[in-house]
Amino acid sequence: MNPKFMKKVSIVLCVICNILNAVNLSAQENLYKIVSPSGQIIKYVEYDNCYNYSHGLAPVQSGVSWGYIDAEGNPAIPKGKPFYFDAAEEFGKYGLALVWAKGQYRFINTSGNNAFSMEFEEAYGFGEENTAVVKHNGQYGLIDLKGNFAIPAKYEGINRYGNLAVIYNGEKFALFHTNGQALTDFVYDNIGLQEGLMFENRIPVRQNNRWGFTDEGGKLVIPLQYEEVSRFSEGLAGFRENSRSGYLDKEGKLIIPPAYENTDLFSEGLALVSKDNLWGYIGKKGEVVIPLAYSYAGRFNEGVAYVSRGDNNFYIDKTGRQVEEPSLRHTNLETPKLSIIAVEEKMNVSLNYPDLQLRVDKFWEANNGSATSGKIYDLRNNQLIGDGVTFERGKIIGGKFYTNGRTLDINRGEGILLADLQKVIAAEAAKPVAKPQPQTVISKEENEEMIKRYTELGDLFDKATLDYDKYYLIALEFDLEASNETERKENLYRKIKPFQETVDKIVEKTSYLLANDTRMKPETRKALTDAIPKYQAMVDKLRSL
Fold first, then answer.
1. 331 Cβ contact partners less than 8 Å away, ≥ 6 residues apart
2. Which of 430, 461, 484 is the last residue of a domain?
3. Checking DSSP bridges between strand 41-47 and strand 164-169, what pairing results, if any?
4. Across-strand partners of 85?
5. 213-266 pLDDT per residue, tens
6. Pair 424, 465 in one domain
7. Domain end: 374, 397, 430, which one?
């Protein structure tokens, strides 16, 4: 990958997700189970998103904020405070994790403290390595585990591969050791391939549109003389010359002349090659082992390859004989470890929130986050404070709540965060008891019609909330068809028109209910009144991209 355009995928995705959640009416919470290395379920927890455990800590997202939980599922970083990171990664091999907050990247240790005094405009985690790429004062460099610059921040881009780094500067590339030693000058147009940097101690390099190879120390060992090259595999690499492909060895010696339209890597002693759009297999001396007779063919794996001939798809062995589809032969030898896994099945769960002194018992609707018969208890005395509680996307929508001998019916269309529940109950209990109002009598037909309208509006709410993420990503796509900003905007408005139409229907149906439902509760009226600008804000956001 060109270092000039490198991206940190997980952090970037976190940031995008937070932007989306900030616009959505509520985030979609998910149920996870924490599983011990022996396979026992330690605890169920509910978060919007999570990554896996490392060093006994797992990054989790609550709302738009990230933090870390410990092996027992309790909030661990920040300690004793609400989550506040805008994005967070897993801890790497050396106990350091990359977090993003207030527009800056920084590294923390497993205690939650800053590992280094310096913050960065951009950073890429240590992972399994002992160096990390960072951006400081607009330039890229490499820091070590102490936060010192192993390679100064003075370059346009860096990609790190183990103990090697490809550095981009002034439209040219150079190879460095991660200790800062320059292994080549800035003389190459490109270093490495999409699959990676070095294979079998050979590094592809390009200069003036001709490819060759260096060794690990940057010494040119195969001259720059090929139109294209592949990586080395089983001692041979493919090359292309005059629109034909062949193979050379690690010293640059011609092994198989360029006689094929296309070639592939050697795998289990055989390589795929093609002529006249038909594929077959050759050996390492160039001999045809399986005739070029297939419209599609894959690499050999454990003695078999998947091929196509006409409309027939089947497996062959290394003699070209058709064989039965192989069974799965792999055994998972991965060492068991502490893990956090999404719950896919419907089930009753009990969720403890020690920081709120609350416990929630409810029936989990898989991939939905909703429940209609939840109970909420005060952990301090195990007293029931909420019954028949309805949850939706992690928020409390309504239910019966008990305080000081009173029963309160609380319903909030916009939802109540669990952290705000006690405050809401106290506020509702402080209100004077309202005198019963005479009910407007409507016919059965009118009642059914009103229920139908509410159902249709609810479906539209769900559709708009789910569709927004899709149209947001569509709006972010680069427009290859537009030649100027006016055309780009016109194309954008056309792409998001279906979402605009959904919101128009929401406004129409919401306005009708606000004007015609004489029995509407005040909290429902407020929720519907607030919904119109919220959904219109989604459209405005898409149109502004």
1. none
2. 430
3. unpaired
4. 66
5. 999 999 999 999 999 999 999 999 999 999 999 999 999 999 999 999 999 999
6. no
7. 430
